[in-house]
Design goal:
Number of helices: 4
Mean pLDDT: 81
Distance between the termini: 57 Å
Strand content: 25-35%
Bound molecules: zinc ion
Strand order of the largest sheet: 2-4-5-8-9
Number of domains: 1
Length: 173
Amino acid sequence: MAAGLPDLVDSVRLADEAAVLERVYDLGELPRLRESLAEPRGIVRATFAFATLADGHAGAEVWVQASPVLVCQRCIQGFEVALTGSSQVEFASGDAAGSAESEREFFRVENGLVSLRELAEEELLLAIPFAPACSTPLTCGKAPDHTIGDEARDAAGDMRRPFSALQNLLKKT
Ligand SMILES: [Zn+2]
């Protein structure tokens, strides 16, 4: 699908040129994503807008769009979900990576070379819900009736809700 297009690109040169690249990958060819997939079908469309950041480092705005078949954490059935994600990424080599102060994501590079496929995969992994659940409790096959309400809210929410529920529980005991 992406035959003929280079995967490893020079992030510094592309940032100088403010280049915008687009790629399409089969989800089945993204090894870290595969364990989240119920079926290895579908594609991800990715756009990379390279830029030199204010601090002089190379970076990129990354957008991804995909409809992977995920495993519902309630009924363990595969279901397709439309996902989009975007991040501002800074390319960092070795020691420069890992400053927790920044809003940006750091993506480690060797000699300024970036794998666009790995970058798209990273962004897509960030876009996948913490506990994916097929959308409608009525069709989510095997969840016991009395838990559907709570679990649906948890599944639709973010990671903070389970922890706040836990805190309430701890206060009571
Ligand atoms: Zn389900």
